[in-house]
Amino acid sequence: MRRRTLTLAGLVTLAGVCCRVSGGMCSPTPAAPGGEAKTATLAFAGIQAPSQVAAFAKFEITFNVQGSVAGNPQLPYSPAPPAGVDLRQERYQGISVDAEFSPDDWRTTYRQPAFVYQEYSVGGARANLQGGMLPWLHPTGNSVWKVRFAPNVAGRWQYRLTATDACGSGQTPPRAFNVQPSSGRGFVRVSRKDPRYFEFDDGGVFLSPGLQSSVQISDPPSLVAREFAALQSNRISFLRVWISSLYGAAWLRWRDSRNIHDGYLPRAGLLPFRDPGRSQDLMTLHLKYPPDWFGACYADSGGVALAVNPNASYLVSVRYWGEGIKGPRTLPGGRYGLVARISDPPQAGCSGEGAPVTGYGGNTSDWQTVQGVWNSGERNFLPRLSLSLENVVEGRAYVASASVRELLPDGGLGPEILEEHSMQYESYFPDRALRAMDDYLELAEKYGIYLKVVLMEKNDLIYYKLDDDGTFVIAGEPDNATGFYGLGRGLNKTRWLQRAWWRYVVARWGYSANIHSWELVNEGDTYLERHWQMADELGKFMRCEVFGVSAGAGDGAGCAFEHPNRHMVTTSFWAGFPGYSTATGQGFWGNRKYPNLDYADVHAYVATSHAPAADKAAMESDAAYYHLWHSKEFASWGLKFPVVRGEAALVPRGGSTDDYAGLGLQSDADGTWYRNFLWASLDSGALYEIYWYGIPHVYDPGRYDHRALSRRLQEFLEDVPLNNGHYQGLDAEVSADGLRVVGQKDVLNGRAHLWIQNKAHTWKNVTGGVRIAPVSACIRIGGFQPDRLYRLEWWDTHRKDGQAPSRTGTVAGSDGVLTVPVQNLISDVAVKVAPAVRSL
Fold first, then answer.
1. Is the Cβ–Cβ distance between 535 and 599 less than 8 Å?
2. How far is CA 8 from the centre of its chain?
3. What is the reported pLDDT for 750?
4. How many Å apart are CA 157 and CA 138, to the nearest integer?
5. pLDDT of 766 higher than 90
6. What does pTM read for this prediction?
């Protein structure tokens, strides 16, 4: 019998066995009157995978799953979901597909989730109406399943596929593939010997100046490649990037034409709507005239360019519910109501701009559709689509979905072109943006960039409109201000949906060693326990549960499972550092109640630092002090893992973090501030920095580029094994107060490194033309082998051309004290100390 799947009717016929989905559950149905009840079995077809791969490289399996009744394959199957996840609704009917891998004939097993993948026709770069060249990717309408996994050791591996939905399950026989040795460094972890640092699987220390990425996922790959290549050439490899636009409504494409923002997020005009006839609640785009909090017109904001076929006709349709719509407002006898327009150029806005492509929709008593036909002409990309209540006196429209699909010659419809066609943002992940992240990550891999990935936004309106009991906020009920955090430890609808996203993230991108870590949320509430609990639950999920390993419930339940593709997990805070205090028993970082976070993250601009006022004043002019104060402060907590300042910037202490020009840093064309900021990081506090204003502070195209200064620092540290467990503070004695000495020593191996700065040589003094007096001094460092000859390498920190250091020698005294002489230092210099093995 021919196999087929009827998802809308909820009926699957598979090899003569029938199953019906009722209320989200699969009830076995007799194959014939009086026959024995049976359950369908899912089948796999078209399995493709390479026969061999290098260790730490992507091993990708592509296949199809046959016989599934899942209405939404992006969500996992859940036989007993929490309240509010109504399995009678197709958008919540999921399927769980996984692969199991083994390097030792199934004595050890690693599970990796699979994901459904939309295939695209690739047409290279094509011109848009403004003359720019953009990647042209057109959906084919075909989807396949993929598993991505990076084996970590060479040898013979095996895998098998599994799948489960409401009507059954299935599994393939094992298949084998070979893993070859690799020069890849592996994944980034917390160092096993010195937890102040990150290291690779191969044991090498991970060090890099960090930047907030200046290129986003939605940028053309050619632009991303140029930026990543420049970072690679300057030895900058640690970037923070947000993918919070890929799930939820925080950065939705449908934007209010008034360009209103709530904080830094564009206002989302979403509102839950109760369908009175079906007693179902769903999220809608709410249009209102006269506008108030809600607007009367929303337009697609752009982002990733949406490809269309030239000279093709497209059906444009909008499904909506209309209430109280009255008109006309300005043109007696004219058309009025809900209408879709397409406008050229795409940056043109809303009502009255561009040609109407649908009819005008009025009041309804049920869901209705307005539609029309648009011809693409010579266009390669969809221009701006807008939805508006046009020429009305008053009224409301609740839009459930919008659609643009090609009219095919046979009378059928092509695949959906719109990236965000449904307003039920909680239930799907937009395919075109996901594909853009694939491209972004592949470029990161090519250029050696490691991504600290921000997963979500706490102020996403979806969570304000979801109550903790799984119901939508309806009819004037107060918003759920802390809804993002769910129940903390508990599993409600909010957390169930979030876990589906986390699972998808691991499935699609978790294979990559160039993911440094997952960051739960940008700047969560600092002293809210539910935030702390949620962050720990993310760590527990990403370490164990997503891989099918059970983890304990509640506080203090840590998961130590070592999956080859496990990434580190953290969260971030706006300001303050909620470290655990043994005196009070309160706090987050280092608290045994939250053992599943891999490193600490805090944001501290000069403006938002919790440093005393006098110290913040000093930071404004002294970039080294800005780093050193925070590094010392965070180190004082005695944490057993690294600390990252996920956002840092020199801005006025009394102003906004947006005031990037307030200190006049752009006048420092030589990059004195950046050099001092970088070299101060040699201190024993080991604070990793991610600087926010890469543009225009670190580089300003056409004016200056300080990034090459970071290359000099990386060259200096190239042979310094900072994570060997032996490095400690210098404890140096300096004979002159005018010098600042920063660094560490490894007395076991007779090594040290130090940065020596004339304290007066700050960016503010340099740009202000202040005369800086030279300083001479002796620097004494104890702990070395008495009477032994040591080699000193003197590095010019100003050089950007890779010039080799000069060398001198010195002999440790009988007391083991090494003396480093400094003569007439005006700016700064760096020194490395190592035992001399031959004459200098």
1. no
2. 34
3. 95
4. 36
5. yes
6. 0.94
**In 3D, which of 74, 100, 72 has the Cα closest to residue 86?**
72
Tokens, residue 831? 């020194």
pLDDT of residue 334: 86
Position 620 confidence tier, pLDDT thresholds 50, 70, 90: very high
Integer Cα distance of 159 and 172 in angstroms: 9
CB 240 within 8 A of CB 454: yes
pLDDT recorded at residue 347 = 52
Cis peptide leading into residue 701 (ω within 30°): no
Rounded to an integer, what is the distance from CA 837 to the centroid of its chain? Answer: 47
In the DSSP assignment, the letter for residue 503 is: H
Residue in 304, 324, 342, 7 with CA at minimum distance from that of residue 143: 7
Contact between 723 and 205 under an 8 Å Cβ cutoff? The reply is: yes
Q: H or E stretch including 265?
A: strand 265-266
Separation in Å, CA 633 to CA 423, 452, 594, 619, 685: 46, 23, 21, 14, 8
- Contacts of 530 by beta carbon, 8 Å cutoff, 6+ apart: 482, 485, 486, 487, 488
Q: How far apart are CA 171 and CA 97, in angstroms?
A: 10
- 511 vs 153, 574, 705, 769, CA distance in Å? 14, 30, 34, 52
- Residue 134 · residue 381 · CB < 8 Å: yes
Residue 222 main-chain phi, psi, to 5 deg: -65, -40
Summarize pLDDT for 694-735 with one digit per residue, the tens.
Answer: 999 999 999 999 999 999 999 999 999 999 999 999 999 999
What Cα–Cα distance (Å) separates residue 277 from each residue in 222, 285, 348, 368, 464? 50, 19, 38, 14, 25
Q: How confident is the model at residue 352 (pLDDT cuts 50, 70, 90)?
A: low
Asked, as a colleague might, if the bond just before 276 is cis with ω within 30 of 0, I would say no
- Strand, helix or coil for residue 725: coil
pLDDT tens for residues 123-137? 888 988 777 889 999
Inter-residue contact 106 to 156 (CB < 8 Å): no
Q: What is the 3-state secondary structure (H, E, C) of 337-396?
A: EEEEEEECCCCCCCCCCCEECCCCECCCCCCEEEEEEEECCCCCECCEEEEEEECCCEEE
Provide the 3-class DSSP secondary structure of residue 416: strand
Type of residue at 27: S
Name the residue type at position 551. Answer: A
Which value, to the nearest 10 degrees, does the dihedral of the CA atoms of residues 346, 351, 353, 358 take?
90
- In Å, how far from its chain's centre is CA 588? 22
Reply yes or no on whether the pLDDT at 840 is more than 50: no
- Asked if 450 and 514 count as a contact pair (C-beta separation under 8 A), the reply is yes
Neighbouring C-beta atoms of residue 275, cutoff 10 Å? 15
Query: Measured over all CA atoms, what is the biggest interatomic distance in the chain, rounded to whole angstroms?
Result: 102
CA distance 173 to 196: 44
